[in-house]
Inverse folding.
């Protein structure tokens, strides 16, 4: 149960219509993920999922030093195996909820994204790294493996051999290397990170909202299928779009050489 006697440790903002921004707000703890922050994050993600007008989600950390420096070691230090399993399951459910959102989720990584912080970024559809960003899965240096999905999402994001290297050495990578190995999509100056993310979200919001959701659904479902099955899923969703007003508006606008006015129907 979330403690309501102290200020929230996550800010949920809507800077523009359809755009949600979640800010991890424990800067003195480098935005480390403890049970309270995870509970607030989970509630906010489920609110975004329930918003029919949502078009994109942005996640970032408060301050310039960290996106999230990891799971809160001070809390974990006294865990029993059963408590550790419950903590990992709680975090795993929240990260899966982010990954399963019908709208794109974009991590805006400022500073350290280590351990659970890196795993949070990996649960997003893509990652924009500030030039001061540092990524890593250093759990093995604490005597534990990753527990929030890092061993599974990292090799799905980058080359499996490179993922195993990072998982077993705990080596940290800076923004330029993260982009080079495919961990992050792009690198931008730290001072421009949030505005760049908003511009990206605005671009998504300007596209057909049903088409964006269907494209993400096809991509996500196809990851676990062979190519023939995945293409069949895509064809089904492609056909489904032809029943929408957005499809009619988009094609008419193209033929009439004007900008479309999508209504999400």
């Amino acid at each position: 149960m979330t403690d309501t006697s102290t200020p929230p440790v996550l800010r949920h903002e809507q800077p523009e219509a359809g755009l949600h921004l979640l800010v991890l707000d424990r800067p003195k703890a480098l935005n480390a993920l403890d049970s309270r922050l995870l509970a607030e994050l989970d509630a906010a993600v489920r609110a975004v999922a329930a918003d029919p007008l949502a078009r994109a989600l942005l996640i970032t950390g408060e301050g310039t030093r960290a996106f999230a420096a990891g799971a809160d070691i001070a809390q974990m230090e006294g865990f029993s195996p059963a408590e550790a399993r419950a903590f990992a399951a709680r975090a795993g459910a929240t990260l899966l909820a982010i990954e399963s959102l019908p709208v794109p989720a974009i991590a805006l990584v400022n500073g350290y994204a280590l351990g659970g912080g890196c795993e949070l970024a990996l649960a997003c559809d893509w990652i924009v790294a500030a030039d001061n960003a540092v990524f890593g899965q250093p759990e093995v240096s604490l005597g534990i493996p990753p527990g929030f999905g890092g061993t599974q999402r990292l090799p799905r994001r980058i080359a499996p051999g490179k993922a195993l290297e990072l998982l077993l050495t705990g080596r940290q990578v800076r923004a330029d290397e993260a982009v080079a190995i495919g961990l992050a999509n792009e690198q931008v100056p730290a001072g421009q990170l949030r505005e760049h993310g908003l511009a990206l979200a605005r671009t998504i919001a300007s596209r057909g909202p049903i088409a964006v959701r269907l494209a993400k659904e096809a991509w996500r479902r196809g990851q676990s299928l062979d190519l023939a099955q995945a293409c069949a899923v895509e064809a089904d969703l492609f056909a489904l779009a032809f029943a929408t007003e957005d499809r009619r508006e988009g094609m008419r606008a193209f033929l009439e050489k004007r900008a479309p006015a999508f209504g999400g129907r």
Observations:
- The chain has two domains: 10-205, 208-255.
- Residues 208-255 form a domain with the Lyase 2-enoyl-coa Hydratase; Chain  A, domain 2 fold (CATH 1.10.12.10).
